[in-house]
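PROTOCOL LOG
Step 1. Enter all chains and additional molecules of the complex.
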Amino acid sequence: MRVLIMAKEGEQSDAATPPTPEAMADYQKFNEELVKAGVVLEAGRLYPSSQSKRVRFDGKKRTVIDGPFAETKELVAGYWLWQVRSIDEALEWLKRAPYDGGTFEIREVVEYEGI
Amino acid sequence: MAGPSRSARSSSTRVYEGALAIGPGNGDRPDGPGRRETAVTEAHHAIEAIWRIESARLIAGLARVVGDIGMAEELAQDALVAALEQWPTEGVPERPGAWLMGTAKHRAIDLIRRRKTLERKHEEIGRHAERAQEGLDLETAIDQEVEDDLLGLIFMACHPVLSTDTRVALTLRVLGGLTTEEIARAFLVPVSTIAQRIVRAKRTLAEAHVRFEVPGGAERIARLASVLEVIYLIFNEGYSATAGKDWVRPALCEEALRLGRILAELVPAEPEVHGVVALMEIQASRLGARVGPSGEPVLLLDQDRARWDRLLIRRGLAALERAEGLGGALGPYALQAAIAACHARATIASETDWPRIVALYDAVAQLAPSSVVELNRAVAVGMAFGPAAGLELVDALVHEPTLKSYYLLPAVRGDLLRKVGRSEEARVEFERAASLTENVRERELLEKRAAECAAEHMVGQSGVVVEGNPPPRVGF
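Step 2. Run joint prediction.
Step 3. Record the structure below.
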């Protein structure tokens, strides 16, 4: 199965301070381990919500809202797409990630509809 | 680190099989087990997932030390049994992989002591067991070792001394971390068949004194070919199931892709490894599009290309670029990947660069000549230069002994005959193809084609002029 991992780092996602070199090195080491295990399909980091926009749909009307957005806990700061055999496997991998804060969400991607 | 003694093994092994048989949702029943039992179930789910992540590395590390896959797997399972007994109450350790390895290596020492094996070997194991627990400072050194171990295990499980069937079963078991039951289910064969294959594989390896090693030079190339063959076979069994009622079984494709991706990281300088990965990624990108609403096969040129997985196409094209970037002439897998890429790059079927596909098949035919490749080439020629040209090539293959019972020969010939307006002959070919395939879905599709040809023939007989050609179809 394919899962999307969303990093909801809370306030950190909008923090002006970039991650420390040590934190980046730890992350890269972990990501490399995942790649070597054939787990990672894709990975990405997102710019802060101050540089983002939202579009709200209401019938024919479209409203554009400029960032930053207030609900920092729900803001996604980065993502992974993983290929795993079960949610449990994703959970075991995620627990090994070198983070000391934030919330990470695991969602299964709908695939092969009709098979 | 202390686990149950070895004498407890036979009863504990049942615990292990039982734990891995726990399906999802067992702990979710509202009237279900109490909190303690739920915690145990949760721990079992975690252990199952950890086994999937760690087992290959664990078995690989042990196989290097004891030199025997069978014993390595037993030791790894002993460690798993210890985990099943201890983790539900004591909690999952912080580094479960190191815990399992440490436990298994202690068992290995016990075992070898008892068997009074060579002192030298004993010391080697002791050194490794200590090293496994020394922690972070040695981690980098061990990481490197782990990669070599994994490669050694792959080469051993895919050793040419083993038959293809046993190589596939052993690879899925020791590298994929699948249970015998799961492998049997995937291949639609009885559990006992797979169990026997695995036993036979281990025995053959031991009897042939196959060494745990990463071969170099010319041997490496030959051994690598054997590995790639196993991986692509697993993929193909999922991609176009040779038997059963399903046309595709994505789980097998995913297993093969995972093995291929792991191998590509282990031996990044081998172009054919990237070639086989590229081929699998691109083919897998079509998985969702090659099955219709009621499970029937949808052939390449009839597929809704909007349903192709762009992520896998992108990954496949990147892998192909890696293969090409390593220099030298492309090998058979990379060439097939290049052909698959021609399809992937065409946003609509009519944009397919068929002359390039013909040229690529020419190259495949030179490197790895086979009548199946000739048949594929004939299809491409039919698309590039007209059905009559393709038919001429297929007609030359009709008496080819290796294609005698290959259903795609009459299927392709039927397509080409139909396109040149010989619908009655086409019907006979489709019916013959239907009788040769063992896949129910494919048979239905071929029977439908035969019926369409019969109808066209009737129309032709009654003197009605049919405008235009029937839609182009190929069997691949």
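Step 4. Note key features.
The radius of gyration of chain B is 26 Å.
Residues 282 and 313 of chain B are 5 Å apart (CA to CA).
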